[in-house]
Design goal:
It is a single chain. It is built from 19 helices and 18 strands. It is of the alpha+beta class. The strands form five sheets. The protein has a six-stranded mixed β-sheet with strand order 11-12-13-14-15-18, sandwiched between helices. Helix 17 runs parallel beside helix 19 and helix 18 runs antiparallel to helix 19.
């Protein structure tokens, strides 16, 4: 009887599996459904890629499907939705019955390389090691291979959220890092001056690496590379959405806010009301809000934070208010950062954010008809700043990164930079200052101040060339003669400061074309071509030159 039951169970299992296995035609039908749905209902996502490019990639995958395994098809679909380059538009690899496996390590990118920040206790030698290669391929080559599978909003997003696609055996195979789908992987590691190899076996299906805010914490079967004898402020009480601590020695109030959400015991509104009340009644001279681990949430909760900061006259001054940002600052937290930037005298410290300033967010699932796989597609446009001010990210005015040794030894150079920064004449928004000098007609002061600021290491975070070109282009695009004449002045000034700027020469050529000064346009366009003969700027300049010559 027992044998009969076993045989019956095996038969039923086989039947269920055969029902889950899709045919080539079914996968191709799913792909067409995705393609048509995006064109019909989500065409607004075609910003960073074109409809034509998307369709070319769809056809390539469609034709490849007969020769692909299921995981390769799913990774192929992830490459398609990743073309849009919005962090909320993606395909999850944790969907039954197509759930991917994971290797038992967590990678983290520090300023001196990519390290195994945490791993299973079965691999104690690997924790804290720098990753040199994966399956004999240099880590840089492997990262380049997996990047197309990640919904990269910008390079910071990839560093924070994307590099751990290396954990998926299915991704490594689909992206040709490995020749076959395998449940073991060998990494070349470096630790303590010694280079060695370590093989990892994938976790059982359904088990994942237990990360929180991007880190594995030392608990149960998992190891953390960080010295466990103490914990820096930014990693304390991560079970809480937010907490505050007054640092008496520095006369600074520190707030770590790691999610845009309300605590059950104390709402965001009440928490910040309490913090601002403490600031008013004690000797606080600085407020530091740490958002480096904040991946978003409900951005409707941001309003009370902003209102409180605006009203806090004691602290809403340059040199008094610091906000720490980083490569995990994303989604609704990007909205918070944008609004803090708009309405306060903040100085940002740390690394650029993981989100575009304005972005498509708030996804909803599109379910494929045969596989039932959910594709998350963004449908809401969030714009906190004018379109002309959109950028890849909010950049810090005080750029600070962390090395692996600093992490391992519980140092926090980012917080330290905020606590010790005290330059009275610092301009956290240098371009605003430059524009104010220009608009007020202080030409002489502008001529003196701008070159000094460009050379000052305090303003290394500001790409003056790009920012000035953007300013000149705004004037040029107005199509009004006085503004176009002003753009010529701006582009000419840029070329005095950056004489090898092909882009400035190209835009100056456009300005001369707009004013009818053809000969001058020819001269500067030829200069742009010579400086960027093989690049896109040179091609555009050549096309413009061809139009006015003919």
């Amino acid at each position: 009887m027992k044998k009969i039951l076993i045989i019956l169970n095996l038969f039923l299992f086989t039947q269920l599996w055969s029902q889950e296995t899709l045919t080539t035609a079914q996968w191709q039908e799913d792909l067409r459904f995705l393609q048509n749905t995006i064109h019909k209902d989500y065409s607004f996502l075609f910003v960073k890629t074109t409809k034509e490019n998307f369709d070319i990639e769809v056809e390539t995958l469609y034709n490849d499907i007969p020769n692909l395994q299921e995981h390769e098809i799913i990774v192929g679909m992830s490459r398609l939705v990743s073309l849009f380059k919005y962090g909320h538009t993606y395909i999850s690899f944790h969907q039954k019955p197509f759930e991917f496996s994971q290797f038992p390590f967590n990678l983290y990118e520090f300023n001196d390389g990519i390290y195994i920040q945490g791993t299973h206790k079965n691999y104690p030698e690997a924790v804290g090691a720098k990753v040199v290669a994966v399956e004999g391929k240099p880590i840089s080559e492997v990262l380049k291979a997996i990047e197309p599978t990640v919904e990269v909003e910008n390079s910071q997003y990839f560093k924070a959220y994307g590099i751990n696609n290396i954990r998926y055996p299915e991704v490594l195979h689909a992206q040709k890092v490995t020749k076959t789908l395998q449940n073991k992987i060998t990494l070349t590691l470096e630790k303590g001056g010694k280079v060695f190899t370590q093989s990892f076996t994938a976790l059982p299906k359904g088990e994942t690496v237990p990360t929180h805010r991007g880190y594995v914490y030392q608990k149960d079967n998992w190891l953390d590379a960080r010295d466990q004898s103490t914990t820096p402020l930014y990693l304390q009480q991560l079970d809480k959405v937010y907490f505050s601590e007054y640092l008496a020695k520095e006369k600074a109030m520190y707030v770590r806010h790691s999610r845009i959400a309300d605590e059950a015991e104390e709402s965001t509104k009440d928490f910040y009301a309490r913090v601002f009340n403490e600031i008013e009644t004690n000797g606080t001279e600085k407020l530091i809000i740490d958002l480096r681990l904040n991946g978003g949430g409900n951005n409707y909760l941001n309003k009370d934070v902003i209102k409180g900061l605006i009203k806090a006259e004691k602290i809403n001054k340059i040199g008094k208010l610091f906000v720490i940002i980083g490569k995990r600052t994303f989604s609704a937290c990007q909205n918070l950062v944008n609004e803090i930037d708009n309405y306060t005298n903040v100085i940002f410290v740390g690394e650029p954010t993981a989100e575009n300033i304005n972005f498509w967010g708030d996804n909803r699932p599109v379910t494929l008809p045969n596989s039932a796989i959910n594709i998350s597609l963004s449908y809401l446009w969030w714009q906190d700043k004018p379109a002309l001010e959109n950028a890849d990210w909010i950049a810090p005015s005080i750029p600070v990164t962390m090395s692996f040794d600093e992490y391992a030894n519980n140092q926090d150079p980012v917080l330290e930079a905020a606590l010790t920064f005290n330059v009275q004449d610092f301009k956290p928004k240098p371009m605003d200052y430059i524009v104010s000098l220009y608009l007020s007609g202080q030409a002489q002061k502008l001529a003196e101040e701008l070159p000094k600021m460009i050379q000052d290491p305090l303003y290394a975070f500001c790409d003056f060339e790009t920012e000035l070109i953007t300013l000149g282009n705004i004037l040029l695009q107005s199509s009004r003669t006085p503004q176009i004449q002003a753009s010529i002045q701006v582009f000419s000034m840029i070329l005095e400061l950056f004489p090898n700027s092909a882009n400035a020469y190209k835009y100056l050529g456009e300005s001369y074309i707009a004013t009818g000064e053809t000969q001058k346009a020819k001269e500067v366009l030829k200069k742009a071509i010579s400086l960027d003969s093989d690049g896109e700027i040179g091609k555009v300049a050549a096309a413009l030159l061809s139009e006015i010559v003919n």
